[in-house]
Design a protein that fits this description.
8 strands, two-stranded parallel ribbon, about 210 residues, binds zinc ion, alpha/beta
Length: about 210
């Protein structure tokens, strides 16, 4: 398997400087992110772990899943985590017209608004698969959103990835300011249930602290 993309290469970050790939701070702060929820069991299991470990994280939610499981979405917010837009139907920007993409982004935005009247967090967007065109990104940024990419990808969603390798992917590649991607999805369930608690305890041992995306 080609593991080239576990750590986002420097030239990619350099090519797309308007997107957020990691934080520039020199503190030992890192940012856990969870994509594709909220769904029963997996998201709830993650919330339980985060609560036990006293960690806040960022959840990039799919609008359709928020509509199906609003109570879990509200739990994410009530427990002090930050949420972001991940489109309504998990669209691939490279295969979607800008018109349709923005419409889908706006549908997710409206859904988030509906359930978050008291929420004062930042406006964050993560493109599904990290695939977005410049036109799409510019239009989303014009609406006051930051485009949040990542620095370390766990590959928890990949059935060929062993849970042990998934853990190594995360722990070995994290540096100060890293943004790490996990998934609260059924595909990732087996790997994340093994890797997340162990990654948290190893990273705490190394002196890292966890924050929500700014
Ligand atoms: Zn996704």
């Amino acid at each position: 398997m080609n593991n080239f993309w576990i750590k986002t290469p420097f030239f990619i970050k350099w090519l797309f400087p308007k997107y957020v790939w990691s934080a520039k701070d020199q503190n030992k702060t890192i940012y856990l992110t969870f994509d594709d929820g909220p769904i029963p069991e997996v998201t709830e299991w993650i919330l339980d772990i985060l609560k036990k470990e006293k960690i806040k994280a960022t959840f990039f939610c799919i609008g359709e899943n928020i509509e199906k499981h609003p109570n879990i979405f509200e739990r994410v917010i009530d427990e002090g985590h930050t949420i972001g837009n991940h489109t309504f139907n998990h669209l691939n920007g490279w295969k979607t017209t800008s018109e349709a993409y923005i419409e889908n982004f706006n549908a997710c935005h409206s859904t988030i608004q509906k359930y978050t009247s008291n929420y004062k967090g930042p406006k964050l967007f993560r493109p599904p698969y990290g695939k977005i065109t410049k036109t799409q990104a510019n239009r989303i940024m014009q609406q006051g959103y930051k485009i949040i990419m990542w620095d370390v990808l766990s590959y928890d969603f990949n059935p060929k990835m062993s849970p042990e390798k998934c853990l190594t992917n995360v722990v070995k590649n994290i540096t100060c300011g890293s943004i790490i991607v996990f998934h609260d999805s059924l595909k990732a369930e087996k790997n994340i249930k093994f890797a997340l608690p162990k990654a948290i305890s190893l990273l705490k041992e190394k002196g890292f602290q966890f924050e929500t995306i700014f």
